[in-house]
Amino acid sequence: MESQYTLLLLQKIIDAQAAPLPGLTRRDVWLPAVPGKALAVIGMRRAGKTSFLWQLLADRHAQGTPREGLLYISFEDERLAGMQASDLDALVEAYYRRHPEWRDQRHCTFFLDEIQTVPGWEPFARRLLDTENIELFLSGSSAKLLSREVATSMRGRALEATVTPFSFREALRHAGREPGKPPGHLTKGEQSQLDHDLGAYLQHGGFAEAQGLDTRSRSELLRSYVDGVLLRDVMERHNLSQPQVLRWLVQQLLGNAAGAFSINKFHADLRSRGVPVAKDTLHQMLAHLEDAFLLHSVALATDSIRRQQVNPRKVYPVDTGLIALFDRSGKPNTGHALEVAVLHTLLRSGAQVGYVLTPAGCEVDFHAALPSGEQWLVQVCLDLGDSATLQREVHALQDARQQWPQARCLLVAQQVPPTVALPPGIELHRASHWLLEGRP
């Protein structure tokens, strides 16, 4: 018996395979390479997951796979409303009806976007992997299923690739100003332009739709992104009964980007204002915000779980452009924005990241444990022109190195004097170069 969606799905297949490949800014997203696994493309709303699926499709086409072997289908189509898992077989049958020579004979690739809109899709996806000669990519985000949960719902049959707002290099590429040579080979004029572009990136952020907008339009756009996350990914999904508390929490977290945050102190502040809320509820709200990719919290770098639990966490927004929306000081928060950008560069490299607080009371912004086993201590600074600032940052790295003697000590600064005297073992990196290269 044919599904009521068969003809519509067949038309969507015809349209998708006839559509020209979109010209999109190329993303530098790491992909796990494990045969037999689906790949779940995850990330915050509007970060570019759908665009990345099209990039993957275009890559396979450029590598020699004809368009008939590549299928992109978005289930975010009102004509597919009410579709059930039992109707998903109609997609496979419609595809092979159109391309019978591909069944069992050739390896095709399906890109299923917003798949979570179909209830019970998970067994269908697992069966595709088991019974058809199909490579499978999945993506989606909704109040029903966060993008992070697409992979976990596959019960070990899918791995994740995380799409974030543009990195600094990707933002330059989008603007047509990505350097065609190593940063150390730039002329003085090119270096000045690069530093100017970094300042703009730290202020405006990396969401694709926000690039090139005026300040008011960009603020309204980014605010709509945050509101969408709060309403659909947190309030609706978890049926929160105290939405105002959630908004106060977000204001506190994003209004103090790169700052320390304690649930206990925030809970005490709410109680002093007569707001009844359970401490566990606040912990859950913070976890929900992280699950929705709106922010990332960094714990103390230590092997002691207890020390991690009793010390505050440092909280960073998903994008530097969000800082201005919530910072009430009215001043450019460039130093914290740079710290946010450095953190996300470390996370993109696959590092496990914590912050350092030494027994002597010195703080280092990040301890990063890389997949290679290498360890970095990273101190971020806006301007090293002041000798006292330089001495303080270097001293913190030297103190932290006593705990991690094998770690490389990196000092990443936006403004670097022409000559800087550093003790042995301290590496100085210009921020525009370090962010552009993704690592030293």
Automatic annotation (TrEMBL):
SUPFAM superfamilies the record matches: P-loop containing nucleoside triphosphate hydrolases
Molecular function GO labels: ATP binding
Top-level taxon of the source organism: Bacteria
Domain DUF4143: 232-381
Record keyword rRNA-binding present: no
Entries under PANTHER family matching the protein: AAA+ ATPASE DOMAIN-CONTAINING PROTEIN, ATPASE
Keywords recorded for this protein, A-Z: ATP-binding, Nucleotide-binding
Name by which UniProt lists this protein: ATP-binding protein
Alphabetical list of InterPro entries matching this protein: AAA_14, DUF4143, P-loop_NTPase
Residue span, AAA domain: 37-172
